[in-house]
Amino acid sequence: MKAPNEVVTKALLRQVNVPGLDRPAALITLDNGFDHTKPNTFGPGGLASLDEAITAALAADPAFIAVTGKPYIFCVGADIVGLPQLADREQALEIGRLGHRVFARLKDSTVPTFAFVNGAAMGGGLELALHCHYRTLSGGAAALALPEVSLGLVPGWGGTQLLPNLIGIPAATQVIIQNPLMQNKMLKPKQAAELGIADVLLEPADFLERSLEWAAGVVRGQVTVTRPEVDKDMWAGVLYFARETLNQRLHGAVPAAYKALDLLETAKDADFATGTAAEDEALADLVFSEELRSGLYAFDLVQRRAKRPAGAPDKGLARTITKVGIVGAGLMASQLALLFARRLQVPVVMTDLDQSRVDKGVGYVHTQIEKAVTKGRMDKGTAAKLYGLVSGSVDKAAFTDADFVIEAVFEDLGVKKQVWAELEKIVSPEAVLATNTSSLSITEMAAELEHPERVVGFHFFNPVAVLPLLEIVRGERTDDATLATAFAVGKQLKKSSVLVKDAPAFVVNRLLTRFLGTVFAAVDAGTPLDVANSALDPLGLPMRPLALLQLVGPAVAYHVGGTLHAAYPDRFSVSENLKRIADSGQPIVVDDQVNDEVAALLVVGDQPLTAEQVRQNALDALAQEIRLMLDEGVVAEAQDIDLCMLLGAGWPFHLGGVTPYLDRTGTSERVTGRRFLPRGAASLPA
């Protein structure tokens, strides 16, 4: 059996003689015939192949059965590309039941079964490993997770039933619900082993040999695997707290998260057959949801489009970077220094106005390196190298031999132009000059330079180490070599780069400013702060508007708003109330509650809006602004808008970024006259 367009992962069986055993072991290797860039997945064809391999393995009367993967990859789960092709609910039930039936053969086997998790194991791949009696794990495994909730699904092949009864309900809730909703956070091998997902953690260099030895020890009785007893007394309390947290954060917006909670509740007392049958039903319910279609669309953007940026020039034009200069030594500059040193492994020098600022910036980098070593995230040899790579100076002459210089100074056009005017006399004509500006014009910044063609926007998002988006902004005179170098550096930094036209505030900040401006306009009109703050709750955004404003900083938001008001006065207003908040220096929210002292500072009108009116005004404003941005050519397509919002603003997968939701709710057509995406691209077919 093979689904349309399925790349079949074959289960290749071979007999392996293991010292100390009187008969061979059966080793099943999952391999779809491609390298690690196209991971193993399971569709109907792959499951059938695994089923046949298990049958053949059992027929050979092996000492044990082990499942492993091709180099660097165990298996990353179900073939989600095939999910939209399912015709009806019965087909969805069938694929769930098929996976359960095949995997259960390993769980129910009288012959010992092992998973040798040699690489990435996600979703159904990790669930396959959980069905085996024992698990070894490579320290080089790149990604371990049950990410289904982030897509609008649940772990549907036993994960919700097996994991909590293996590692306990608190940890299982973290892996199945919390991590997927936190930018799809992955587990490191050491974390997975500490949680008890793996029985032993082995070095990657000789992982298969050591796994075979360890398994033989288990079979001979020389290795005893002990697992702590799962505490079921706390089960209900943990799930109650998790549900309350979801309600506060998502307000019912992600059905998959609540389905997962229900399944975890079932896992406490139900037998395995009852629990997996409940998984089948949940899967069938979710497969035909709008949230799943948006989640799959978002997944495709992050996994495919982000790796092939639209409009990026030929990478062969990129120049080699041997040294990086950073103008500034504040927090953002220091974060950049650490990132460049870690990823590019070249000397990085920071400059600032006085030695104390420089010392503080370099000290921050050193402190972060020390923390990484203490937490086991970096070895001492790497740390010693990074210490030597990062330095500081009060003399910009330190940039003489730098190939790439980025400024992270005060967001003022005059200040930035002065910086570049000084630097152009120092650096080589080929050196790339990058600006981390969040809203200012790249073209204006470079206008008076002798070589404006080597200036490019390089806009990171805070915190730099966490948010993966990099807006690369092409000025009117930026040349292809500079742009190609910027994209090459972005890739080395492991960022997802999107090409953006030089337009005020680019993509994310322009949309967030319009969004927050609409919410604050409602406050100015007389809408209570708490009503405006909770108005967007039904979307399940990662932050409420006022918490987002607090994170950005009222002063920064006011400044960016002013820049956009100057460019588009008809759509971007300047709120004096926002200035009052910025001047007060007080937090707007405390423990997710509006600060009454800040509320008392506001001067408001007498025309309050309802929460529904605030929400609709905000959505209408986003739809209008996105259509204008696409008409202006700020990015190539609506997909790039969504990619920016997913990776730079943390907007959730269940919304697909932003345009699928605007399409789904009819806002796009009502405000702009047409959809942003073809019907079915991120939604159910008509």
UniProtKB/TrEMBL annotation:
GO BP: any one term: fatty acid beta-oxidation
Catalytic activity from the UniProt record: a (3S)-3-hydroxyacyl-CoA + NAD(+) = a 3-oxoacyl-CoA + NADH + H(+)
Keyword Protein transport: no
Gene3D superfamilies, per database record: 1.10.1040.50, 2-enoyl-CoA Hydratase, Chain A, domain 1, NAD(P)-binding Rossmann-like Domain
GO molecular function, one term: enoyl-CoA hydratase activity
Taxonomy, superkingdom: Bacteria
InterPro entries: 3-OHacyl-CoA_DH_NAD-bd, 3HC_DH_C, 6-PGluconate_DH-like_C_sf, ClpP/crotonase-like_dom_sf, Enoyl-CoA_hydra/iso, FA_oxidation_alpha_subunit, NAD(P)-bd_dom_sf
Keywords: Fatty acid metabolism, Lipid degradation, Lipid metabolism, Lyase, Multifunctional enzyme, NAD, Oxidoreductase
Domain 3-hydroxyacyl-CoA dehydrogenase C-terminal positions: 506-585
Pfam families: 3HCDH (PF00725), 3HCDH_N (PF02737), ECH_1 (PF00378)
Domain 3-hydroxyacyl-CoA dehydrogenase NAD binding residues, every copy: 323-502
Known pathway: Lipid metabolism; butanoate metabolism; Lipid metabolism; fatty acid beta-oxidation
Similarity field: In the central section; belongs to the 3-hydroxyacyl-CoA dehydrogenase family. Belongs to the 3-hydroxyacyl-CoA dehydrogenase family.
Stated name of the protein: 3-hydroxyacyl-CoA dehydrogenase
Upper taxonomic lineage: Bacteria, Bacillati, Actinomycetota, Actinomycetes, Micromonosporales
